[in-house]
Each structure stands twice: as C-alpha cells, then as structure tokens.
Amino acid sequence: MLRAQLCSVLLTKQLCDVAMKQACRSNSTIFGLSSGFGKCGVAVIRVSGSASKAIVHKKTRLKKCPEPRRALLTKIFHGHTNEMIDRGLLLWFPGPHSFTGEDTVEFHVHGGSAIVSAMYDSLATFPDTRVAEPGEFTKRAFFAGKMDLTEVEGLADLIHAETEAQRKQALRQANGQLSCFYNDMRTRLVNAIASIEAYIDFSEDQDVDDEVLNVTVQRIEAVIEELKGHLNDNRRGERLRNGVRTAIVGAPNVGKSSLINLLSQRNVSIVTSIAGTTRDIVESHYDIGGYPVILADTAGLRANTDDVVECEGIARARTYVDCADLLLLVVDASRIDRVNRLDAFIEEYTQSLGIDKRMISHTLIILNKCDLVDNDTLDRLKNNSTFSCLSCESKAGLVELMERIKTRLEQLCGNPAVESPTISQERHRSHLKQCLTYLERFRDYFKETAETDRDLAIVTHHLRNAVRCIGKITGTVETEEILDVIFSTFCIGK
Question: Are the C-beta atoms of 29 and 52 separated by less than 8 Å?
C-alpha cells in the first residue's frame, strides 16, 4: 500500500511538473477568430489569458467587467488609437469557470473583414498578447483539467462531423462517455496494483492473506474480457468517423457509372455505351441515412483486354475492392432474361469478376437495367429478397435500394445513439491492444508460475504498463508529439 501511495504521489508530481512547464510556455494572453473566416453576419473573437480583464476595460471603457456569462451590448474601441471599431456584444467568463480555465472574453462583432482586421490589430497592441495557435484554446482547457484527450478528440470530430451519425458519436465522446469507460478501467487496475502492494508489504504481519491475490487475478481476468469485447467491435467507430468505403463493381457496361451518378445526384463519372470508359477510381462523398459513405466507381472487371490503361484500371479496382467495407455489385438484368437459376448465375458472375467469396457477406447485389426485361422476369426478380432491382434510367427501385443500403450501413457502423461508446481512433486501438498484452502477461504469469517462485514486484510491472497505456489515451500520460498531432487538427479560434 505504501508503495502504491508513493507511486501515486510521484505520478501526481510528474503531471504537475508537465502542467507547470506548459503554463510557463503559455503564460501569454491569446486571441483568435472562433467563428468562420470570410464575410458573415457576426464574427466571434475569443481572448483568453491574464490580460483579458485589462482588454475589457481598455476596449469598452467599462469601469468593471460585466456580469459573467451574460451578453452586454457595448461600444468597442481600438486599444491603441481609441477609435471606435464597432458596436457589438461582450461576454465575460472569469477563470476558472471558463472553457480554458483562464479569464476569457468574447467579442461578437459584425463579420466584415475590415472589422475583424481592426480587432486583431487592436488586440495585438496589448503587452504579451498574441494570435492563438491552432487548437491552443482547447490545449489550455486540457492542461487546466477541463477535459481529457478523448474529449478533446471528440470535440474535434464534432467540429468536423458531416453526417448525423458522426455528430452523435462525436457528441458522446466529447461529453466524456468514452473517457468514463477508460477511467473506470484505469481505476480498477490501480486498485489491483494497490492490493498486490499491500500483500507484499503487510502479508507477514497483518491480516492480508493469499485470497487477496486470487481476487485480484479474477478482477484482472474480468477486465481482460471486457477489453476484448471493446476491441472486438468490427471497427464500427473508426468506420463511422472516417466514412464507409463503398466500391461499385461489376463487368464493363453494366451501369456502374450511372449508379454513382444517380446516388450522388450529379455527374461524377462519364457515361458512354463504350465498354471500359472508367479507367481510374472515381470517388464521391455522400450522406446516406446519416452515415458517411465514400462511393467509388471502379473500372469494369474482365479477364481479357489488350488496353494497357484499362489493365491498370482493373488492377486498381481489385486493390480497392480488397480494402472496401461494402461492395455494390452491379449486374446487367437484361442478360438474365432466360436464366432459370439466378443464384447460380450470380455465383458464376462473381467468380468471373474475381471477387473473393469472403466479400459476399459485405456485398449488396443490384440488378440494373430492369426496365429492359419483360414483366414476368421482373416479377420473378422482385420476389427474390437477395437482390435489389433498379433502373438507373427511370430511377425505379431507387427508394428500396437506398433503404437496403442504409440498413447495411447501420450494421457496419452501429447506432451511436444507443450503443456503448466505440473506438473511433486508431491511436486508441493501438494503446488498448498494448494494454491487453500486458494484462494477459500478468494473468499468464500467475497461471504458469508456481506460488513459491512468483516475484510479485516484477509481475506488478505489467499492470503499471497497462495503466500507462490507458493514460496515453486519456492524456494522464502524454508526449508532446501526440499532443501536437491532436491539437493541430483544430482551427485557430478553437
């Protein structure tokens, strides 16, 4: 127990030292445009730091700061020339009850470029005041303990979210739900370390028996199973964050380019009656049912062609198919007019295209050109729920196809509104895998080593390494390189 307490004190001291060094580097007052750049109705300029109060007095000529978090309409002056810049709203957030934990002020002015430029020029005249670096406001909030790294990354994802499902996932992470999961796991590991330390220090002269070790191992096994379940998520969170890579594949001239144009509602690919028109990968980002989709039109797959360029296009198509999350396999319905066994035809068709059988579970089969088949054949095709009937020419069957795609996207990405928080960053997954490795080493050591030969001081080191892995996710243990990468994704005013 004493060792555990000492470790905790040393860790706290290290974190304080890091925070102090950061404070020394960031003791200046910063400002930046928190709203979008360019002409707009209102521009929000945020200021954070020790000079915020002096800036309020100088730029508004108010004798005291306004009531916190309450908008005040006031004249705003240049800090050096004393000329009036604009008339706008002032919001005062005294530290530590602010986003950054420091004294913060926001100026809401008209969004003309001349006004914003004058505000920047004015703020720069104050001593030890400078333009904020990208993400510096959020970085100060992190070092002030207002949020951890998972919440920071969630905030960045929330800013960049383009679909409803992305917004829901990012909001849950920004609100700390993922952070709570990791912190709870970290607390359980720290408690396990403390129990083993207590056994080492007091087992001989205090009432600490061998059952403490057995219970600790059982608890670690429970954490291992929970962590395995968390990692075994089929990368739903990362797929939702980055977009579902969807390849439109098929033989030449089956309507792949027509399909991507129809789904994107614009002319993304060139459509002609000449086979092999599409040579390269043509991508288009799309929102289907709130899920982000990267649609890719690929070259028509066929075995025999003398065209060198088309051969390269086919090779690129096969490479894209191998890493795609979802395949939209397009079939020319006019070619199956007289086919008795449709399933056998589809199997032969996929084999002729060289599509691996393992990808079939990630494939939606679309029978295009259904307007060219007779009514009896069309009825037979519609009665088969395995396929989607479509006419890119008349758009018949489009609604049903979109519903089927949406259902498949929900299976691939999950529902962020109701499911437990999922891993959304490759960085998290890497550290969690390392954490799992250390925990399994701890468990295996107790299984494989005789009780008389156990060195508890050494085996506990595995648990400490596991705790550090989780700390790298939340920011309890961090490196400058990780922080620089994370905060560089933010804009200047955030």
Answer: yes
Q: What pLDDT, on the 0 to 100 scale, is given for residue 341?
A: 72
Residue whose structure tokens are 């849950």: 172
Tokens 């390189």 found at: 481
What is the DSSP secondary-structure string of 286-352?
A: EEETTEEEEEEE-PPP-S----HHHHHHHHHHHHHHHH-SEEEEEEEGGGGTT-S-HHHHHHHHHHH
Round to whole Å and give the CA distance between 260 and 282: 9
Instruction: Tell whether the model's pLDDT for residue 208 goes beyond 60.
Output: no
Beta bridge partners of 40: 111
Question: What is the per-residue burial (b if ≥16 Cβ within 10 Å, else e) of 309-326?
Answer: ebeebbeebbebbeebbb
| 477 closest CA partner among 1, 14, 10 | 14
Give the pLDDT of residue 351. 82
pTM summary value? 0.79
List the structure tokens of 37.
């750049």
160: tokens are: 């960049």
Phi, psi of 68 (to 5 degrees): -55, 140
Q: Element (H or E) spanning 374, and its range?
A: none
User: Residue 356 belongs to what H/E stretch?
Assistant: none
- Cα separation, 34 vs 137, whole angstroms: 10
Q: Are 422 and 169 in contact (CB under 8 A)?
A: yes
pLDDT band with cut points at 50, 70 and 90 for residue 55: very high
Give the CA angle between residues 386, 382, 354 to the nearest 5°: 40
- Phi (first) and psi of residue 369, to 5 degrees: 65, 35
Max intra-chain CA distance, the chain? 90
Beta pairing partners, 33: 45
User: What would the two tokens of residue 328 be?
Assistant: 């939209």
Q: How many CA atoms lie within 13 A of 195 on its CB side?
A: 19
Cα 43–chain centre separation: 28
Region of residue 212 (left: phi > 0; alpha: psi -120 to 50; beta: else): alpha
- Tell me the CA distances in angstroms from 13 to 8, 18, 147, 338, 481, one per residue in order: 9, 9, 19, 78, 21
> Is it true that the peptide bond before 127 is cis, omega within 30 degrees of 0?
no
Token code pair at residue 494: 């955030």
Q: Which of 316-325, 353-362, 405-414, 418-427 has the highest mean pLDDT?
A: 405-414
